[in-house]
Amino acid sequence: MNNSNEQYIGKQLVDNLFNHNGVFVLPALTLLSSEHVRLITQHRIILQPHDVIQLDSEAFYQLAVDDCTAAMENIFDQLRYTKSKRLPMLELKNEVIPFIQQVSEKNDFFGILAALQTKDDYTYRHNVAVGILSTLLGKWLKLGPEELGMLTIAATLHDIGKIMIPAEILTKPGPLTDEEFDIMKKHTTHGYELVRDTPGTTHMQALVALQHHERMDGSGYPFGVLGHRITDFSKIVAVTDIFHAMTSDRFYSEAAPLYEVLTQMEDYSFGKLDPYICGVFISKLMQSMIGNEVLLTDGQMGKIIMILAHDPLRPLVNIGEEFIDLSKNRHLGIVRVIPQ
């Protein structure tokens, strides 16, 4: 069998694809995954350059995230409406994980973030977003390929227990009552059981479903454990879970501006979130803002020139002829970063 088709992974089919006997194989506009390529090769089809188009980054992120979101919705629905409470790992590994890994490889944080902005499918898109952001963060923390692969799956499944929570609680437009919140909190233990009981998963991955709402100071749920009892994977997912939730429009709250979210997360790193993991996340995000315009608290506009390792949220800013070190000028601050 010929593997030359592999060069087309991540590209989009132009037309419907049929094999030599006229059997329909894949529809037009399919974003090709490794699984699609395996199927095409099984049908003894060798793709040619004119069969596919290379999407620009923005279109690729959008289509990949939309496809993954639809696949996650399908996985949730399968679990909701079947007696079996085993996760369809094959579907997850073939239709979701490869695209999450491909998007993460791009390292283009703002392009990716735009594609993750929720439409009306927060519950499903959030899983994909946390999968992508955790994979990026895992790379920044220098995890090896095997650990990174395990983290990607764990992060994508972190909220799978929500299939056991009534839809009227999940999509309630206002704040939850104490009773509703108690039910909502159970998604952690439900998720733990679902992942644990599925062949092909690890205990570490089940613990992420259980612990992603636990906090370093013991203020989290379901068990209120302290930081030394929370696994590293769970600490990573806690950071990306909070970040995506705060930067998204949800059923009951609007997205907060990015810089405001990062400031809030820095506060959380004194007690709630792991300070090292959270610090790496904030620092990398700020690095990706070098060159962006910022509005300062005194109304002036400046440009981020350099991120300072000891205080990433207070960078070196250029205004006209001047260079202002915000870490030394504490009376000045950034109101917001203007996207490029």
UniProtKB/TrEMBL annotation:
Pfam families, per the entry: HD_5
SUPFAM superfamilies in UniProt: HD-domain/PDEase-like
Protein name in the entry: HD-GYP domain-containing protein
Alphabetical list of SMART domains matching this protein: HDc (SM00471)
Domain HD-GYP: 101-297
Lineage of source species: Bacteria, Bacillati, Bacillota, Bacilli, Bacillales
InterPro entries the UniProt entry points to: HD/PDEase_dom, HD_GYP_dom
PANTHER family: CYCLIC DI-GMP PHOSPHODIESTERASE PA4108, CYCLIC DI-GMP PHOSPHODIESTERASE PA4108-RELATED
Domain of life: Bacteria
PROSITE patterns (UniProt xref): HD_GYP (PS51832)
